[in-house]
Automatic annotation (TrEMBL):
Domain of life: Eukaryota
Lineage of the organism: Eukaryota, Fungi, Dikarya, Ascomycota, Pezizomycotina
UniProt GO molecular function: S-adenosylmethionine-dependent methyltransferase activity
SUPFAM superfamilies listed in its UniProt record: S-adenosyl-L-methionine-dependent methyltransferases
Gene Ontology cellular component terms for the protein in this record: cytoplasm
InterPro entries reported for this sequence: Methyltransf_16, SAM-dependent_MTases_sf
Name of the protein described by the UniProt record: FAM86 N-terminal domain-containing protein
Signal peptide as annotated in the record: none
Originating species: Aureobasidium subglaciale (strain EXF-2481) (Aureobasidium pullulans var. subglaciale)
Length: 314
C-alpha cells in the first residue's frame, strides 16, 4: 500500500522513467545502456524512496536482487546523479534509505572477479516494449543465470540472449500471436534459460509448453527456473538433439499422440555447423504436424551463418 500511495504522488512521466529504470536494473543491463531518470525525477524525494523500495530493499525484490557488485556500481552512479540534480540544498532532500544502503554495500565483502563470473545470479525480465503503457502489475520472469558468455560447463545456454528478449516482447505486444498461443501447445527449441517457454506458460495462456535443449545441464537448470516462476506443472522439460527422428524422442515415448501447434526458437542459428540438424528437425516437425507454425528469431552476428540458415530452409 505504501508503494501505491507513493506512486500516486509522482507524475506519470516520472513514474514511467523510474519503472523503465527498474526494468533495466533488474535485467542487469550495463550502466552505459541504462535509461537513467531525469534530474527533475531524481530530485524528487518520493521518486528516491520509490527507487529504494522497488530496486534495493522492497518486499517485491529482496529475494531476487542483482549481485552486490552490480548493486554497488549502480547505486554509486545513482547517488552521484541525485547529488548533481540538487537545485536548492535547503529544500531538496536525499533519501537516507539510499545513503544507508550505499554505506552497507561499500563495506560488504565482495567475491573476486573470477568467482563472481562463475556465479549464477537472479535476472528479472519484463517482456514489454520500452514505450508500453504503465501497468499496475507488469509481467515479470525471474531467472537464475550465469552471465558469463561461456559458462564453466562450456555452454551458452545458462544466460538469456538478445533474440529471446526481442521475441518475448514481440509475442506480448502482438495480439495475433497472443491469440495463437492461448490454449495451444507450444514447443521451444534450444530453450536455454526458458524465458520464452515460461512466458507462454505463465502469461500467454498456453495449454501446455514443452521446453527442449540439447544440453542436459541447461535442461536441469531450466527445471529450477520453471519452479521459481510457478509453471513447473504446466511444462515438460527435456533434452532434444536436433537431426534425430522426432517420433523417437522422449516426447513421443511419454505420449504417442503428442502434438504441437507452435514451435519457438531464439538464437538457435548461432553456429553454421548445427544448422543442417536444426533445419532437419524443423522439416520433421512439419511432416509430423502439418499445420504447425514455427517462429525463429535470430541475432545476426555473422551474415554467412544466417545466410546458411536461410539457404537450408529454402
Amino acid at each position: 500500500m505504501r508503494v501505491m500511495r507513493m506512486a500516486q504522488t509522482l507524475s506519470e512521466e516520472a513514474l514511467r522513467e523510474i519503472r523503465l529504470f527498474r526494468r533495466q536494473y533488474l535485467q542487469l543491463l550495463d550502466t552505459q545502456h541504462l535509461a537513467w531518470p531525469s534530474s527533475g525525477t531524481l530530485r524528487s524525494y518520493h521518486a528516491q524512496e520509490w527507487i529504494y523500495e522497488n530496486l534495493f530493499q522492497g518486499n517485491d525484490v529482496e529475494h531476487f536482487l542483482p549481485p552486490e557488485r552490480y548493486r554497488l556500481r549502480i547505486l554509486k552512479l545513482l547517488m552521484s546523479k541525485i547529488e548533481n540534480s540538487i537545485v536548492d540544498p535547503e529544500e531538496d532532500e536525499i533519501s537516507d534509505s539510499l545513503m544507508s544502503t550505499l554505506a552497507e554495500l561499500m563495506f560488504s565483502p565482495m567475491p573476486d572477479d573470477a568467482t563472481a563470473a562463475q556465479q549464477r545470479n537472479w535476472v528479472t525480465y519484463t517482456p514489454l516494449p520500452q514505450d508500453s503503457p504503465i501497468l499496475d502489475k507488469e509481467p515479470e520472469l525471474k531467472l537464475l543465470e550465469n552471465r558469463a558468455v561461456i559458462s564453466g560447463a562450456g555452454t551458452t545456454g545458462l544466460r538469456t540472449w538478445e533474440a529471446a528478449l526481442h521475441l518475448s516482447s514481440y509475442l506480448v505486444s502482438t495480439p495475433e500471436l497472443m491469440s495463437s498461443i492461448k490454449g495451444k501447445k507450444v514447443v521451444e527449441l534450444g530453450a536455454g534459460t526458458g524465458i520464452l517457454s515460461i512466458l507462454c506458460a505463465s502469461h500467454l495462456g498456453a495449454a501446455h509448453v514443452t521446453a527442449t535443449d540439447g544440453d542436459e545441464g541447461v535442461a536441469q537448470a531450466l527445471h529450477e527456473n520453471a519452479a521459481f516462476n510457478d509453471v513447473k506443472d504446466a511444462m515438460d522439460i527435456g533434452v532434444l538433439w536436433w537431426g534425430r527422428a522426432l517420433k523417437g524422442s522422449w516426447m513421443f515415448e511419454k505420449d504417442p499422440s503428442f502434438s504441437c501447434d507452435l514451435v519457438l526458437g531464439a538464437d538457435v542459428t548461432y553456429d553454421k555447423a548445427v544448422i543442417p540438424a536444426l533445419v532437419s528437425t524443423m522439416r520433421d516437425m512439419f511432416e509430423v504436424w502439418p499445420h504447425v507454425q514455427i517462429i525463429v528469431a535470430a541475432t545476426i552476428r555473422n551474415s554467412d551463418t544466417f545466410a546458411a540458415f536461410e539457404h537450408a530452409c529454402g
